[in-house]
Design goal:
It contains 6 helices and 15 strands. The protein is α/β, with parallel strands linked by helices. The strands form 4 sheets. It has a 5-stranded parallel beta sheet with strand order 2-1-3-4-5. Strands 10-9-8-12-11 form a 5-stranded antiparallel beta sheet.
Length: 236
C-alpha cells in the first residue's frame, strides 16, 4: 500500500489534490491511503512514513520549505512534491531533494505525469525497502539503514545504523526472504548487512562503533566467502 500525505493550510486546495489523487489512483489496482495535514507542524508530529508528500510552500511557520528541511534532517526519504503559486521558488527546492514542483491551480495532465513518475520511482525502489507492520501502523525501512536483524521470541528487532531499534512481530525466516543479497544469516537468530561487516573475530561479527554479534561456528567460513563475493560485486 502507498501512503500519501497532503500538507496544505487551504482546505479547498488540499481537497483538490485529494480529488485528483483519487481520480488517478482509481485507474490503478494499488491500495493507498491519504492523510491531510493543515500545517507543517501537524505533519511533523505524525509518526507515519509516507511514500509521497504533497507539500504547500506558503504556510504559517514552519512553512513548506522549513518543514521539508526538518523532514530530511530526520532521514525521511518520502518523495516531496511541492505545490505553490510561486513560480520563482522552483530553484529553492532542489537542495531539499524535491521530486517535483507543481503550480496552483493544479493542471490535470501535469499532475498525472508527476504521479506516473512517482509510481515508477516507488516501484523501482520497493526492492530496496523493508515494509514492516507495527500494530496498526505500516513503516518503510531502507535496507541500507539496517545494520542487522535479530530475533528474540516472537519479535524481530531491526538495529539501524543511527542507533534506533525497531521491533515488530515476524519470523527471521520471513525477513530473510524479503531482503536482498547484502544480508547474510550468520546465526540462527541474526541476519547481518554485509555492507557494514569489517571482519570476524572469536566467533563474533565486527560492526561499526564496536558493535558485535555472534556468528555460528559452522557459518564462519560461509561468512568469509559471502564477504569476498560482496566485495567483488561492489556491494549493493
Amino acid at each position: 500500500m502507498i501512503k500519501f500525505a497532503i500538507c496544505d493550510d487551504e482546505p479547498q486546495m488540499a481537497q483538490d489534490i485529494a480529488d485528483q489523487l483519487a481520480s488517478y489512483m482509481k485507474e490503478t489496482d494499488i491500495d493507498y491511503s491519504v492523510d491531510c495535514f493543515p500545517s507543517g507542524y501537524a505533519l511533523l508530529k505524525s509518526s507515519d512514513e509516507f511514500g509521497v508528500i504533497f507539500l504547500d510552500i506558503q504556510m504559517e511557520r514552519p512553512d513548506g520549505m522549513e518543514t521539508a528541511r526538518l523532514l530530511r534532517q530526520r532521514d525521511n526519504h518520502s518523495l516531496l512534491v511541492f505545490v505553490t503559486v510561486l513560480k520563482d521558488r522552483v530553484f529553492d527546492v532542489f537542495p531539499l531533494e524535491a521530486f517535483d514542483y507543481l503550480l496552483k491551480p493544479l493542471d490535470r495532465d501535469r499532475f498525472r505525469r508527476t504521479m506516473d513518475r512517482a509510481l515508477r520511482w516507488l516501484e523501482r525502489d520497493a526492492a530496496k525497502n523493508l515494509v514492516i507492520q507495527r500494530g496498526s501502523d505500516c513503516q518503510v525501512v531502507l535496507l541500507s539503514d539496517i545494520l542487522y536483524c535479530e530475533v528474540l521470541g516472537r519479535k524481530v528487532y531491526l538495529h539501524k545504523k543511527d542507533g534506533i531499534v525497531l521491533d515488530y512481530y515476524d519470523r527471521l525466516e520471513d525477513v530473510e526472504q524479503r531482503v536482498d543479497s547484502r544480508f547474510f544469516k550468520c546465526h540462527r537468530s541474526y541476519l547481518v548487512n554485509l555492507d557494514y561487516v569489517s571482519g570476524c573475530q572469536e566467533g563474533q561479527v565486527l560492526l561499526p562503533q564496536g558493535k558485535r554479534i555472534p556468528v555460528s561456528r559452522l557459518r564462519e567460513r560461509e561468512l568469509t566467502q559471502a564477504l569476498l563475493r560482496h566485495m567483488k560485486e561492489g556491494g549493493v
